[in-house]
């Protein structure tokens, strides 16, 4: 499955538009990662735990979108866009969503 942020795929022609597809992941950040991030916030540095959780959520959202495009008979997703949100009363949840247009290529 080709996934691109552009509206076309180089050297390919879009033969059919299958529809808009989405991938969404909402994940909780565990308290140990949260404590480590709080210390890094105070003293500086990168939060490896948060970075790993973000990477995992991003990869899962793309995989979900790709699966949905495949179910429609698409072989590519063009115009992919990704968004991130922090949710929950204590901002303890991370939402990653992506969307794009599922297409068939010639």
From TrEMBL:
Pfam families the UniProt entry points to: YbjQ_1
InterPro entries, alphabetized: UPF0145_dom_sf (IPR035439), UPF0145_YbjQ-like (IPR002765)
Gene3D superfamilies: Hypothetical protein apc22750. Chain B
Leader peptide range in chain numbering: none
Family assignment from sequence similarity: Belongs to the UPF0145 family.
PANTHER family for this protein: UPF0145 PROTEIN YBJQ
Name recorded for this polypeptide: UPF0145 protein ACFQ4L_08845
Native species: Lapidilactobacillus mulanensis
């Amino acid at each position: 499955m080709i996934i691109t942020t552009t509206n076309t795929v180089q050297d390919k022609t879009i033969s059919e538009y299958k529809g808009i597809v989405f991938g969404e992941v909402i994940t909780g950040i565990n308290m140990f990662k949260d404590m480590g991030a709080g210390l890094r916030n105070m003293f500086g540095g990168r939060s490896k735990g948060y970075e790993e959780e973000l990477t995992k959520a991003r990869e899962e959202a793309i995989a979900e979108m790709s699966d949905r495009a495949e179910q429609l008979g698409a072989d590519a997703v063009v115009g992919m866009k990704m968004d991130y949100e922090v949710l929950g009363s204590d901002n303890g949840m991370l939402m990653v969503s992506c969307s794009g247009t599922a297409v068939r290529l010639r």
